[in-house]
Amino acid sequence: MAGVPTSGDMSMLKVARERTGSGYESSISIAPPIYLSDLSRLSGGNSSGSGRSYPAINLNNQADQRPDGQNPLRMEEFKGYQQNLTRTPFYYVYSSQNYQNACAAALPLGPFFHTDGNNLYPDNLTGIYTAYTTQTGTTPVSSGYYAIYDSFFNSTGKWIYVGSNGSITGGNSC
After folding, report:
1. Domain final residue pick, 21, 51, 84
2. Which stretch, 63-77, 79-93, 123-137, has highest mean pLDDT?
3. pLDDT of residue 64
4. What's the pTM value of the predicted model, to 2 decimals?
């Protein structure tokens, strides 16, 4: 499921479908009325009177791709939102100096988390993904080089460079 588009016009009905976890393009029936306040409420529910109760906002989305629950409420806050999005854990060896040091044999640490929409390990995800220290994505990882390991502590043979804001800005093979 791709979630809410990141650009163009949005439909309140389709956003409501995404918020149920069924998907933006699904055809499930949503009982009216649909209130933006219920769609945007971080804790979910239907206390404004929507015809359906919605689950809590999925905080695994990046902060700029989820509603903040604050007034003014705006449909634009849903651009890129995915109700069923999960963050992929990855293990790593870190170096602040260079990728060669990160790729040197060592015991991996972690997990850290990232979101790429496809549950891939964060290799060559330049410029669009952010690595976090927590699954909810509240704290970006430190700037530096990370050799990437899977959940069984096996090397993927890849490294990434993370910039000062946690953004993955480079990477390649070890």
Report:
1. 84
2. 63-77
3. 82
4. 0.63
